UniProtKB/TrEMBL annotation:
Superkingdom of origin: Bacteria
PANTHER family xref list: 1,2-PHENYLACETYL-COA EPOXIDASE, SUBUNIT E, NADH OXIDOREDUCTASE HCR
Organism: Sutcliffiella horikoshii
Known cofactor(s): FAD
Protein name: FAD-dependent oxidoreductase
Entry keyword annotation includes Iron: yes
Lineage of origin: Bacteria, Bacillati, Bacillota, Bacilli, Bacillales
InterPro entries attached to this UniProt entry: FAD-bd_FR_type (IPR017927), FNR_nucleotide-bd (IPR039261), MRET (IPR050415), OxRdtase_FAD/NAD-bd (IPR001433), Riboflavin_synthase-like_b-brl (IPR017938)
Keywords assigned by UniProt, alphabetized: 2Fe-2S, FAD, Flavoprotein, Iron, Iron-sulfur, Metal-binding, Oxidoreductase
Any one GO molecular function term: flavin adenine dinucleotide binding
C-alpha cells in the first residue's frame, strides 16, 4: 500500500510561494518557498517543479527537496552557470510572493531502516543528503552509523554549516573518494547500505566500483541527476 501511496503522490500538485534565494557558492543557488500545511515528503525525495510566471520551453524539471518538512520551507538547490537554461533563468527572476508549482513528492531515495549507511555525493548530488542528514539529526538516530563522502572541486562544497555535527569527509580527488569507499566496504561489507547521488557517469562509475567490492545491487540506492 505504501508503494501505491508513493506512486499516486505524483498527482499531488502544490503552488509554492517564493520567499528568497541564497547564493551557496560561485554558481550554486538555493531557492526557498513557503511550505503549505498539507504538503509533506520523505527526506531524499524530489518534486517536479514547473515555472508558471512566464511561458518557456521545458518548463518542468525534477529537483530534489533539500529541506525537511519541519523546517517549514521547500528548499531546492541548483547549479546555474554563465549561460543558464530558460528554466534556471526563470528561477533567478523570481521575486518574493511569486509562485512555482510542484508535483509530487516522488522517488524512493529515502532511508528505509537504520543500518550502517554510507552516503556518497558528487557535486550538486549533495542536495538529497542535506535532507537525509537533517532527518537523522532530528530523529537523533545514532549518527556513528552514518557517514557522508562529499566529492566536489575545491571551494565548491556547500551546506558546510548544515553538516557541522555530522561525520563528513570533504573530498576533491577521485583517488581519495575510492580509497574511502574501500575502507567503508571493508568494515561493513554487505551489511551496510549505500546511497549515491550525482551526475549519471559518476553514479554509474561508483556503482560499478561498489559491485566490484562485492556489494550487492540490493544495498545500493542510486539517485541519477539526469540533465547533468
Ligand atoms: C531525481 C532527480 C533529482 C534532481 N535533483 C536536482 C537538484 O537537486 N538540483 C539540480 O540542480 N538538479 C537536479 N536534477 C537535475 C535537473 O532536473 C536538471 O536536469 C539539471 O539541473 C539541468 O538543468 P538545466 O535547466 O540546466 O538543463 P538543460 O536545459 O539541459 O540545460 C543544460 C545546459 O544547456 C545550456 N542551455 C540550455 N538551454 C539554454 C538556453 N535557452 N540558452 C542558453 N543556454 C542554454 C545551459 O548551459 C544549460 O546549463 C535532478 C534530476 C533528477 C532526475
Amino acid at each position: 500500500m505504501s508503494f501505491l501511496k508513493d506512486a499516486l503522490s505524483i498527482f499531488k500538485k502544490s503552488e509554492l510561494v517564493f520567499i528568497e534565494k541564497i547564493k551557496e557558492s560561485e554558481d550554486v543557488y538555493s531557492f526557498l518557498f513557503k511550505k503549505d500545511d498539507d504538503l509533506t515528503w520523505k527526506p531524499g525525495q524530489h518534486g517536479l517543479f514547473t515555472i508558471t510566471h512566464k511561458k518557456i520551453k521545458n518548463n518542468t524539471k525534477p529537483m530534489t527537496v533539500a529541506s525537511i518538512p519541519s523546517e517549514n520551507v521547500v528548499k531546492i538547490t541548483t547549479k546555474i552557470g554563465d549561460t543558464p537554461s530558460d528554466f534556471k533563468s526563470a528561477l533567478l527572476e523570481l521575486e518574493a510572493g511569486m509562485k512555482v508549482s510542484m508535483s509530487g513528492p516522488v522517488g524512493s531515495f529515502y532511508l528505509k531502516d537504520e543500518s550502517p549507511t554510507l552516503f556518497i555525493a558528487t557535486g550538486i548530488g549533495i542536495t538529497p543528503f542535506r535532507a537525509l542528514i537533517k532527518q537523522i539529526e532530528e530523529k537523533q538516530t545514532t549518527s556513528n552509523q552514518f557517514k557522508l563522502l562529499y566529492f566536489a572541486s575545491q571551494n565548491e562544497h556547500i551546506y558546510k554549516e548544515d553538516f557541522k555535527n555530522f561525520d563528513v569527509d570533504y573530498i576533491t580527488t577521485n583517488e581519495q573518494l575510492l580509497q574511502e569507499i574501500d575502507e567503508y566496504t571493508e568494515k561493513h561489507k554487505d551489511t551496510g547500505q549505500y546511497f549515491i547521488a550525482g551526475a549519471k557517469a559518476e553514479v554509474h562509475m561508483l556503482t560499478e566500483h561498489l559491485k566490484s567490492k562485492h556489494i550487492s545491487k540490493r544495498a545500493i540506492n542510486k539517485n541519477v541527476f539526469m540533465g547533468y
